[in-house]
Amino acid sequence: MTDETHPVPSDPSHGFSLEYAPAPESTSVVTIADDYGLFIDGEFVEPRSDQMFPTVSPSAETHLANVAAASAADVDLAVGAARRSHTDVWGSMPGRERAKYLYRIARQLQERAREFAVLETLDGGKPIKESRDVDIPLAAAHFFYYAGWADKLEYAFPGRSVSPRGVAGQIIPWNFPMLMLAWKVAPALAAGNTVVLKPAETTPLTALLFAQLLQDVGLPPGVVNIVTGAGATGAALVDHPDVDKLAFTGSTAVGKQIQRAALARGVPVTLELGGKAAHIVFEDAAIDQAIEGVINGIYFNQGHVCCAGSRLLVQESIAEPFVEKLKRRLATVRVGDPLDKNTDVGAINSSQQLAKITELVEVGVAEGAELFQPDCVLPDSGWFFRPTILTNVQQTHRIAREEVFGPVLSVLTFRTPEEAVAKANNTPYGLSAGIWTEKGSKILWMADQLKAGVVWANTYNQFDPTSPFGGYKESGFGREGGLHGLAPYLSVGPMGGQIR
Ligand code: ADP
């Protein structure tokens, strides 16, 4: 069965087509309110600003809800609540008691996983199979992992005195709304901090559902406060004088502003910014696995991934057949309704992002790149972009240098491992990289040479709460995940001090 929103992917080279019946996930599990206030001191409150903004479905361009736009006065209330709760309750609570709350949050996330996944897909446009199988399970896993550390900080930092920093101001982007919330909130709470979190303006709904979950688990009021709004709300949080620690994930441009503001006030900050990862395939690689890895590396979550493998560096000796295979594989990728369980590539998060991707691809073609897009039918409504491969790309092209944050792969070639390293590192970013080769020694040598915080070998996009993630250079600094992700939320003092 086919229709406009469920195109039939076909593989022209083999002359057959695979048909998938529509398999839409039900939205009945989700209840969306008309209006959402701010979550401050354990309650939803009307914004002092009196300002609301809409959040829409990227796949249908339909209105989902109105959400409060927090002003500086609202942010001040939230920070005040976080401060009181830190002083009176959370900051002095024994770690084993904090852990119980974190475990409860993790278990609730698991129990309500379907609800969170559907809402994430509705508000953000990502395929349901990703929010269901990756975003929400990993978010729960982060809470489980950091729950385990809450009463073991003395083992995390043996012999050192540790204490929470206080109030953490956290700003997150729209590409992994719940996962980024978990990366930020779980370690902060485990370490004894209270939180004011600002979700991204295009994807606020799962954070607000999370606030309801916090009410259900009985988290003391003020421990987590959620202020929705756009950049101005984020800036008010960054500039608030009573915030003790800042954590930001988002664009490099905004990250630089936040770094300047934090530096001026002497507030510690963690920045997880953009990327332009090299995905390097050697001639001795397991080719079919590498094809799957490259596809996953760039088209996962529509390429809205800071660590996306957006630059394919393929060894010249296999470049032609490899790219041919890649194109054939791309033709079988299913683009369309994010709520359909068969969909591989969903909707672009916003019309602005779609315009940016479109512009960069046009510039790439104007600069001499060759465009390949499969012949898939895109839905009539919503923001969609055909998964794209650009060949003939030079290192100087904008498409090879700037972060596209979309389903667009630039292909470059190399002859020697040294050339692959030089090209991979020829970027202002340094977040991640991928290597495909059967030679272990080559993997180790390459990993050592690559200026990237995360290097995957013979796989890509693998995440685990125990494993630190973060970048070099314009990709930011500080790590999230693992013990490395706990440390920024603690003041680690001299040996032998008091531990809670
Ligand atoms: P993107 O370009 O991917 O939308 P941004 O860096 O603009 O990334 O957004 C990431 C997060 O930072 C969002 O929550 C956004 O509202 C917030 N933000 C944007 N501008 C500012 C700012 N000047 N100060 C603080 N936060 C901001």
Layout: helices, strands, pairs:
Elements: E1 10-11, E2 16-17, E3 35-36, E4 38-40, E5 43-45, E6 52-56, E7 63-68, H1 72-90, H2 95-111, H3 113-124, H4 128-150, H5 153-156, E8 160-164, E9 167-171, H6 177-190, E10 194-198, H7 205-217, E11 224-226, H8 231-239, E12 245-249, H9 252-265, E13 269-272, E14 278-281, H10 287-299, E15 311-315, H11 316-330, H12 351-366, E16 370-372, E17 388-391, H13 398-401, E18 408-414, H14 417-424, E19 432-436, H15 440-449, E20 454-457, E21 476-477, H16 482-486, E22 490-495
Parallel strand pairs: 3-7, 9-10, 9-12, 10-11, 12-13, 14-15, 14-19, 15-18, 17-18, 19-20
Antiparallel strand pairs: 1-2, 4-5, 6-7, 8-22, 13-21, 16-17
Bound molecules: adenosine-5'-diphosphate.
Q: Notable features of this structure?
A:
single chain; 500 residues; alpha/beta; Aldehyde Dehydrogenase, Chain A, domain 1; Aldehyde Dehydrogenase, Chain A, domain 2; 2 domains; seven-stranded mixed β-sheet; disordered N terminus; binds adenosine-5'-diphosphate
